[in-house]
Design goal:
With about 270 residues, this protein is α+β, with helices and mostly antiparallel strands. The protein is about 45% helix and about 20% strand. α2 packs across α3 and α5 runs antiparallel to α9. The longest helix has 30 residues.
Length: about 270
């Protein structure tokens, strides 16, 4: 989603420079690639000199890095801001506890993720052994349409949110197994709703299969999802469903029920 550029608040307490700096970070995050000083100036609707001052300040504070090609990119310090907030939420602490139990039970990599636009953002990851060439860790993002957790988060999203997000999905294939069209993906979402779990059959990378289950609120909408990832050479889809689906869905139901109790006791949304 394109960050808003206009900053209409004229209240004397509103700091325009601070808002511009935060907007700069949002623009680079939305671009998903490093930006040049000229691009940053255009996005902030300001001149290069002002853009340079913003970039210099954010580099000094550790939130931007200036690369050798004179492009600016985010640093991991930006992730720490959002991740710290996520870690303070009850669902994160509770999910971590139950996923640790699931990891001990299954002895396979387990994860949790939330939906960020058309991507999933990993918020918890307990790794048995690296089975992908890509380095997936807390803070990593992957396209939702090719991941088990992403399918769940969209399948069990509120209808209005799903209608908003589906046209934005870029169905670029990670490999030949990746779903590559909206009609086919809608069929997949229908199947996921019927099953109550989702499979990613080497759709992210050959050699990896995963199965996921949704964490549901009182309205039946997913606020997060959890998954188990396994090597394809050891787990066929049939074995994955037979051995992993029951304990995984049970774990998801426990987390959802526990969160419901917390919300009822605390009045939190």
């Amino acid at each position: 989603m394109k960050p808003k550029t206009d900053l209409p608040d004229n209240n004397r307490y509103f700091i325009q420079a601070l808002s511009k700096g935060l907007l700069l970070l949002k623009h680079i995050a939305a671009a998903e690639r490093p930006l040049s000083r000229t691009e940053i100036a255009e996005k902030l609707e300001t001149n290069k000199a002002t853009a340079t001052r913003f970039c210099y300040t954010l580099v000094k504070l550790g939130y931007l890095q200036r690369m050798d090609n004179k492009l600016y990119d985010l640093t991991p310090n930006v992730l720490e801001l959002g991740y710290s907030a996520i870690c303070r939420t009850d669902w994160h602490k509770m999910t971590t506890y139950f996923l640790q139990e699931l990891f001990r039970q299954l002895d396979e990599t387990v994860s949790a993720a939330i939906l960020v636009e058309t991507d999933i953002l990993y918020t918890i990851r307990i790794i048995k052994k690296k089975i992908l060439d890509m380095d997936i860790q807390v803070g990593s993002r992957l396209p939702a349409h090719c991941t088990a957790m992403g399918k769940l988060l969209l399948a069990f999203a509120p209808p209005e949110k799903l209608r908003e997000l589906l046209p934005k999905i870029d169905f670029t294939r990670m490999n030949e197994k990746t779903i590559g069209s909206l009609p086919r993906f809608k069929e997949e979402l229908e199947a996921v709703r019927r099953m109550g779990y989702a499979i990613s059959d080497e759709e992210v990378a050959v050699g990896n299969r995963s199965i996921g289950a949704p964490l549901l609120d009182e309205d039946g909408y997913a606020f997060a999802a959890i998954s188990v990832a396994t090597p394809s050479e050891r787990y066929s889809v049939e074995r994955l469903i037979k051995e992993m689906a029951p304990p995984l869905t049970e774990c998801a139901q426990k987390i959802s029920a526990a969160m419901k109790q917390v919300r009822q006791k605390t009045g939190m949304p």
